[in-house]
């Protein structure tokens, strides 16, 4: 009877009925803002209209419009139904009435800001929730619905208050919902960890850089965030004008833009889009994220950050050709010095394609961890850097270059078993599951205990906070094997050099 009663809980907006799964209470498809449809397209998220009676919370909410086939192939599975009405979240909690409020972890899915959903199998919150935390996953506006600029829309805002990063505002609205309501799910609103992968990790760092996110979360984890520069607002405006012209709207009004069908956008050529980064210069992100971190002006909160050993697996999606990276070095170097320096740091790698693969990986992903950790040190906040290089035992012949972009997720979220028959030809092993427990232990320890005053994260090996003179990095796996290892000065020369060179060598295609 207690469980049946606890399938129901009350929020500020109304009463919810969830389900009980393997001892964890699950609430799906909970609205955290009003549907951004019609006149609310390209508007900041508006409050949910309270409902009467009991709302069913046992089915996933809609995902934002996207390419289903692409998400099935590389995004983690089927994102479900598509709609502009997509501002929903999901909650997993082990106890709605705990003796003490539980740590909260809010997951932002990746997908280049163009695909994905919070209900995908790799993001199942049940395994971590069963170990004593409250997990929240969210859907948010993607693609043109999430990031868009046009002069006609600018006219709707007072000077200095223009919004272009609607997806980031959606994430902020979800965090506001957490602050209002998470106590009703047993969560501690004063201990909220924001974490995500790829564009989800970029979102974490962007919210570290946004003045509008202050006070809504208390620490962050960025998995495989990338160094690609944010889009300047003027460039985004120009893209918006070209997009309107594509639809025959040479002098588009805001009303005409909002009348365009939602499913017409995701099919457009990438030259008419702004992703896979945010737009710098609106009220949500006044300065580019990288500029904020370079100046050490990000929110003063603890941060864990890292990347994988074969991030180059995704670089084509970002418009980066590894071989062209080295060609670009040749064209811009002075008397061969730069290329010689790079070759010295990649001893034994002579093929341009392989060298470019490793250089692009480190410049686009590994160096982001160094930049962020250095910024954290400069503003007096702890940071922890990691490098993920474990490959599941039955797939090591497939991943000969290491851990692909995103392949760490089922280890950090402990969701190896959530894939079901999808991996049946190469099933995860007990050793894979044991390693996932070790990895996710660190994520849980960070969520439970990390604060501005922490010096380490406890685990099988105590993981000290990063300091520039030691530059200790936790290695989760070494050459695919299940090894936990702290390494001093990890890729130090590379990351120091690339921090200086990356603006000229890694960029989005124009």
From TrEMBL:
PROSITE patterns referenced in this protein's UniProt entry, alphabetically: CARBOXYLESTERASE_B_1 (PS00122), CARBOXYLESTERASE_B_2 (PS00941)
Catalytic activity, EC: 3.1.1.-
Keyword Methyltransferase attributed: no
Residue intervals of the Carboxylesterase type B domain: 10-481
Gene3D superfamilies in alphabetical order: alpha/beta hydrolase (3.40.50.1820)
Hydrolase in keyword set: yes
Pfam families documented for this protein: COesterase (PF00135)
Origin superkingdom: Bacteria
Keywords: Hydrolase
A GO term, aspect molecular function: hydrolase activity
Family of the protein in this entry: Belongs to the type-B carboxylesterase/lipase family.
Protein name: Carboxylic ester hydrolase
């Amino acid at each position: 009877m207690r469980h049946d009663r606890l399938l129901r809980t009350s929020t500020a907006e109304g009463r919810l009925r969830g389900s009980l799964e393997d001892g964890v209470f699950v609430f799906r498809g909970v609205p955290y803002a009003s549907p951004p449809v019609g006149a609310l397209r390209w508007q900041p998220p508006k409050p949910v209209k309270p409902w009467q009676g009991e709302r069913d919370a046992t089915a996933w909410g809609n995902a934002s419009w996207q390419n289903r086939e692409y998400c099935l192939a590389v995004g983690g599975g089927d994102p479900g139904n598509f709609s502009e009405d997509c501002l929903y979240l999901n909650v997993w909690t082990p106890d709605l009435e705990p003796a003490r409020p539980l740590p909260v972890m809010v997951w932002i899915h990746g997908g280049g800001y163009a695909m994905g959903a919070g209900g995908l199998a790799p993001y199942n919150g049940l395994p971590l929730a069963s170990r004593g935390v409250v997990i929240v996953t969210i859907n948010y506006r993607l693609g043109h619905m999430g990031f868009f600029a046009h002069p006609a829309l600018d006219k709707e805002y007072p000077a200095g208050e223009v919004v272009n990063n609607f997806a980031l505002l959606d994430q902020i609205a979800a965090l506001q919902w957490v602050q209002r309501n998470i106590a009703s799910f047993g969560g501690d609103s004063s201990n909220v960890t924001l974490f995500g992968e790829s564009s989800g990790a970029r979102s974490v760092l962007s919210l570290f850089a946004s003045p509008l996110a202050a006070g809504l979360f208390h620490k962050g984890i960025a998995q495989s965030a990338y160094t690609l520069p944010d889009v300047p607002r003027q460039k985004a405006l120009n893209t918006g004008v070209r997009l309107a012209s594509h639809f025959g709207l040479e002098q588009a009004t805001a009303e005409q833009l909002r009348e365009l069908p939602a499913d017409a956008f995701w099919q457009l050529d990438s030259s008419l889009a702004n992703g896979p980064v945010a737009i710098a210069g609106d009220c949500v992100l006044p300065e580019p994220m990288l500029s904020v971190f370079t100046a050490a002006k990000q929110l003063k909160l603890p941060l864990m950050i890292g990347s994988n050993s074969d991030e180059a697996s995704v670089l084509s999606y970002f418009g980066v050709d590894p071989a062209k990276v080295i060609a670009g070095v040749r064209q811009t170097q002075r008397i061969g010095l730069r290329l010689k320096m790079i070759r010295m740091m990649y001893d034994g790698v002579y093929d341009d394609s392989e060298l470019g693969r490793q250089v692009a990986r480190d410049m686009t992903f590994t160096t982001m961890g160094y930049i962020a950790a250095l910024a954290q040190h400069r503003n007096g906040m702890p940071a922890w850097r990691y490098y993920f290089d474990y490959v599941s035992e039955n797939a090591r012949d497939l991943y000969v270059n290491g851990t692909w972009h995103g392949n760490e997720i089922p280890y950090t979220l402990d969701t190896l078993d959530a894939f079901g028959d999808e991996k049946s030809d190469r099933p995860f092993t007990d050793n894979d599951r044991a390693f996932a427990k070790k990895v996710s232990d660190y994520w849980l320890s960070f969520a439970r205990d990390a604060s501005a005053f922490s010096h380490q994260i406890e685990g099988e090996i105590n993981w000290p906070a990063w300091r520039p003179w030691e530059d200790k990095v936790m290695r989760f796996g070494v050459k695919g094997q299940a090894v936990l290892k702290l390494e001093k000065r990890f890729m130090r020369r590379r990351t120091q050099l690339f921090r200086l060179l990356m603006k000229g060598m890694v960029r989005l295609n124009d």
